[in-house]
Amino acid sequence: MAKKPTQKDEAEKPADGDAAKAKKKKMILIGAVGAVVLVGGGGAGAYFMGMFGGKGGGGAHGDAGGHGAPQKDVMFVELPEMTVNLSTVDQRATYLKVRIALEVTDKTVAGKIQPVLPRVLDAFQVYLRELRTSDLDGSAGLFRVKEELAKRVNVAIYPSKIDAVLFKEIIIQ
């Protein structure tokens, strides 16, 4: 038989409906907070990557929008291939073969390198012959070599200055 609703049952029904509504509101609130955090985090990440012109990491777009300093044309000065003996403790011959390009942003600097190229190559030869194979281990070792070579070029072409030394090929035998 069907049970007739009593006053007690009638009082419990609306309470269950209110609990369901409260649970639904809570889920909507959690979803909204999650969406705000997700959008805010994505916006902050985009800002720090430089997509909004901020002072962040200078992402893929960097200063391409015409903002900030205009980007200069980059030129590369190719140096002849060099092969040198490396300094070793034992009597085994170890050779370093290297092809280098110098990065400059000014045509006048590129023009000043050619007349003093023998001086630059001599400075490179003297420095590279004193290296050991352990000096060339890893990216940190190569970075130190690049910095030292850049210093030597800048001394040879002073008061002009290059921007970077680039390894096109480096082989140790």
From TrEMBL:
Q: InterPro entries recorded for this chain? A: FliL (IPR005503)
Q: Could you name the domain of life of the organism this protein comes from?
A: Bacteria
Membrane topology qualifier:
Single-pass membrane protein
One GO cellular component this record assigns the protein to is:
bacterial-type flagellum basal body
Q: Does the keyword Membrane apply?
A: yes
**Intracellular or extracellular location(s):** Cell inner membrane; Cell membrane
Q: Which residue ranges run through the membrane?
A: 28-49
UniProt entry tagged with the keyword Cell inner membrane: yes
Q: What is an example of a Pfam family matching this protein?
A: FliL
Task: Kindly state which keywords UniProt assigns to this record, in alphabetical order.
Answer: Cell inner membrane, Cell membrane, Cell projection, Chemotaxis, Cilium, Flagellar rotation, Flagellum, Membrane, Transmembrane, Transmembrane helix
Its BP terms in the Gene Ontology are:
bacterial-type flagellum-dependent swarming motility; chemotaxis
PANTHER family assigned to the protein according to its UniProt record, in alphabetical order: FLAGELLAR PROTEIN FLIL
The protein's role, per its UniProt record: Controls the rotational direction of flagella during chemotaxis.
Homology family: Belongs to the FliL family.
What's the protein here called? Answer: Flagellar protein FliL
Q: Which organism is it from?
A: Prosthecodimorpha hirschii
Lineage, top ranks? Bacteria, Pseudomonadati, Pseudomonadota, Alphaproteobacteria, Hyphomicrobiales
